[in-house]
Amino acid sequence: MADSRRSQYESWVSQWAPTLYRLALRLCGKRELAEDLLQETFVEAWKSRDKLSDPAKARAWLFQILRNRWSHYLRDSSRRLRPSHDQDALSQVGSRAPDHSALLAESDFVQRALDQLEDDLKLPFLCVVMEGYSCQETADLLKIPLGTVLSRLYRARQALRLLLTPAHVGLAPPAGDSRPGETVPSAPRHPAASGDHDMESPAA
Amino acid sequence: MNFRDDILESISLLPPGDPERRKLEAELPQAPPDVRRRYAELVAEAQGLSDLLTANAAAAPTDHGEAHALALPESLLGRLRNIPGRTPVRHPHFLTPFRAVAAAAILLLMLAPATAWFFTPAMIHHRLLALPRDVVAAADAPPPMAATQPAELAEMFARSSLSFMPEFPDPRPGATVLGGGITALVGRPAAFTIYGLKGKQLVVFEVARADFPLPDQGSYPMICTTAGDRVVRFWSPDPESNMLFLAVVQCANDDGLENFLQLPAAATQP
């Protein structure tokens, strides 16, 4: 029994940890934080593995845990995995050490653009475009209506279009929408998808 | 079918097999040519975005010359694999800490009237004062044995049940260690982070040559991580016991790997 649980856990790690790490990294834009989030996710998964009734839903379940950990991080000003550096070491980290997260952000224009997206837009966008979740899966994962997923995808795309140059995405954006490099404090609103109004399904 | 631009934009982001996308594409042949052309452009753009998200970070170099890979770091993978067996299982019906405290308080309240006659006020006073003193005494106890000299370390290695945490800021005896990894600190030749179940410690030390033989019999490599020309290996005499992690920092040179520092990195309790 214990062996089977352990092998099940091993399969989670080998199968889903790379995907979840990539998602965490894109979510927070900080390598070290992404590692902490993933460790917390798997510690939580191991502790409460009995709660997973359907092993086929392990991916969604792990995603939910990761999302919760990220929400907790955003909500709490203090990190759960707080490093207990001594002050000397801490000051060196701050002043002399290369900050991987900063490097990631500076060297990766996509990450810089993502960092300016609101979380509400970033999560569905990453789920669909990076991880290949279907619209319905994303709606289920994020517990939002399908129309809201579509609406947020649209708004995220509009925001990224302002932040990424046309050469980055290989296509000139529609006229009047493109101002490369412009800072976007929040996603631009479109009359058809303003706020969190649902967008109707194409079949409607 | 509604072919509004916002719908085309969001649907074209969906993966090809998505039912919503299939619905739209099934109707698309009946759409005007400009809509079909616009949708094709949006699909191409969406593919470009997807490629950027998954590929760009891997291609962007840092000032270390390392690739910003989105791949899972080996050291993290090791930590994740160490979680089973080092994490208490939360039984579904197990009392949460809050419930446990509440249950203890209720029990105490129930027993208090029955036992009050037994304790004199002086005894209660003594007990209340003694408890903090015990706690303070425990805190003032000598720290775990520290060893910095090679000979001293060698003697300790010869023994099987080592339990000490030298050179650690804010040592936390009893912490469960999951693993460790190199932490880049400019100007510091050796620094790494030990990751525990509920926290992590940055360990910074000056490299000092210590000519030890590597652990051999009874020692198993637990984690090996590299950063540039440095290699950090963690050993435990017994991988299942969590008794000791031994960090060895090695530096690659023309003759191979040279030991630069070898010291016990963390001692944990099972």
Task: Describe what this molecule looks like in 3D.
- The complex is a heterodimer of chains A (204) and B (270).
- Chain A is built from ten helices and no strands.
- With 204 residues, chain A is mainly α.
- In chain A, helix 1 runs antiparallel to helix 2 (31-47), helix 5 (100-107) crosses helix 6 (109-115) and helix 8 (135-142) crosses helix 9.
- Chain A is globular, with a radius of gyration of 19 Å.
- Residues 79-107 and 171-194 of chain A have low confidence and may be disordered.
- With 270 residues, chain B is of the alpha+beta class.
- Chain B has seven helices and seven strands.
- The model of chain B is unreliable at 57-68, 122-173, 205-228, 234-246 and 250-270 (pLDDT under 50).
- Chains A and B meet through helix 1, helix 2, helix 4, helix 5 and helix 6 of A and helix 1, helix 2, helix 3, helix 4 and strand 2 of B.
Give a brief outline of the structure.
Chain A is mainly alpha-helical.
The assembly state of the depicted protein chains is heterodimer
How would you characterize the largest beta sheet of chain A? none
Mean pLDDT of chain B: 59
Please state roughly what percent of the residues of chain B sit in beta strands, choosing from under 5%, 5-15%, 15-25%, 25-35%, 35-45% or over 45%.
Answer: 15-25%
Beta strand count of chain B: 7
- Could you state the order of secondary-structure elements of chain A as H and E? HHHHHHHHHH
Most extensive interface, chain pair and sizes: A-B, 79 and 76 residues
* Total DSSP helices of chain B: 7
Structural class of chain A: mainly alpha
The whole-angstrom Rg of chain B is 30 Å
N-to-C SSE string of chain B, H for helix and E for strand: HHHHHHHEEEEEEE
Report the uncertain regions of chain A: 79-107, 171-194
Compute the separation of the termini of chain B in Å.
64 Å
